[in-house]
Amino acid sequence: MTFDLETLSLNSPTNLWLEIPENQQTKIWEKSQAFSTDNRRWMAYLNRLSLNAFLPWFKEEYAINAKVFPNAATLPSIWEVTNGTGISFNGKKLVLIPSEALDISELRVPQEWVDIPNWSADYYAAVQVNIEAGYIRIWGYTSAVNLKEKGTYDANERTYCLNKENLIANFSILGIAAQLCPEEITKTQTVPLTELSATQAENLITRLGNSQLINPRQAVPFTMWGALLEHGGWRQGLYEKRQGMPKQWSIRQWMQAGVSEFAQQFGWGSIDLQPSLAGFRGTEAPTQETTLIKKISISGLEYHLSVKLKNSDTLHRIWRFELRRATVGEMIPVGVKLMLLTEDLQPFDGNQAQARKPAERIYVDVALGEEEEGLVWKTEPVSDDFEYETLYL
To answer: In the chain, fewer beta carbons within 10 Å around the N or the C end?
Structure first.
């Protein structure tokens, strides 16, 4: 499964040819099994092969800070429903669109990567994957502006299509242009998507989460579909539903049985603290207090976001969301905010706390009843690799 890089480069000298290490293919295939259909498993495999071959090269050659967008843990929920892998670098976004097709006459970009506001990219790269020969070939790329101006929209497939002659074959131009012309306009304006309520989203997840529905992305209007995917918590719920998984984001379940293995991939963990014995009478020992913790980074500084139950009254539970610096003794800078939103991203009274002066911690307490409710956390400035998570309390 090796190929002659020099010969291939001579045949198409402007294209980028990268080797897929043979010893990675089996491991990557094993990581590509948690999908609802054989087709989605295969597409996830092609995407991960492309990412693993391309990203180390791109970081070394052009952008050491390049990373997966939104973040690596979100990739399965994206690949379950559409093709493509997002990469962010130097304030720009690039999307790899892999395919095994021998026909390289046009690039076909799924609409999600163009018209979902938080997903829309600056550049799109056509990637030909040859598993048998063990290489990927980036045979062309385009800016979003060029894709919209010179391409066509296929309403049946919900893709933007651009002929080969309108692509730039030499990928190195992208890296040079991004460095020398950072102010170049590469993105287009996106149209606002439908605002979904939590009930609408739940109904869509129930309907589209049926794994027998082979192509959920074309089962509802795009403005609704795009809004569902843009909300990371809802998209994650759709992915889990299509895998037949039980609920993975219940804080109450995490408190009782430990953080789900799935949520651990997103950085969540827990610690058990023994309350102080001071003031306790009798022989009964106090129960441990479980605190859920996620490490996050804001403006290059490390923090701990924690969630804990402040009281034990099951009828009127009070939950505390707290933000601290990861290093004991370091202070939160002035202006940093911690916010809670409803599942459909609406604010409510008392939903935020702000550091008015350097502070050890800031926190928000929220009172909830017996029924589980979904809440979303967010910080300002926005934390690195941020995406909405729906936590059910």
So the answer is: N
Q: What is the pLDDT of residue 281?
A: 40
Asked if 305 and 322 count as a contact pair (C-beta separation under 8 A), the reply is yes
One-character DSSP codes across 301-317: EEEEEEEEE----TTSE
| Residue 314, SS3 per DSSP | coil
Q: Which two tokens stand for residue 309?
A: 């139950």
Structure-block tokens of residue 144: 């979003």
Query: Is residue 393 a contact partner of residue 253, using CB atoms and an 8 Å limit?
Result: no
Distance CA 387, CA 229 (A): 11
DSSP class of 118: T
Enumerate the β-bridge partners of residue 291: 271, 308
Question: Is the distance from CB of 254 to CB of 294 less than 8 angstroms?
Answer: no
Token code pair at residue 378: 């967010």
CA–CA separation, 41 vs 79, rounded Å? 8
Task: Give dist(CA 162, CA 149) in Å, integer.
Answer: 10
| CA–CA distances in Å: residue 234 to residues 197, 198, 279 | 11, 9, 45
For the chain, residues with pLDDT lower than 50 are 1-2, 276-286
Contact 125, 95 (CB under 8 A): yes
State both tokens at 231.
Answer: 């909300």
Q: How far apart are the first and last CA of the chain?
A: 50
- In the three-class reduction of DSSP (H, G, I as helix; E, B as strand; rest coil), residue 355 is classed as coil
What is d(CA 121, CA 309) in angstroms, rounded to the nearest whole number?
40
Parallel, antiparallel, or unpaired for β 361-368 and 317-325?
antiparallel
Peptide bond into 21 cis (omega under 30): no
Asked if 296 contacts 305 with a C-beta cutoff of 8 angstroms, the reply is: yes
Strand-pairing partners, residue 19, are 135
Q: Is 303 exposed, middle or buried (0-12, 13-18, 19+ CB in 10 A)?
A: buried
The dihedrals phi and psi of 366, each to the nearest 5 degrees, come to: -135, 130
Angle at 6 between CA 4 and CA 8, to 5 degrees: 70
Condensed to tens digits (0 to 9), the pLDDT of residues 84-100 reads: 999 999 889 999 999 99
Helix, strand, coil percentages, rounded to 5, for the chain:
30, 30, 40
DSSP structural state of residue 217: G
Eight-state DSSP code of residue 77 = H
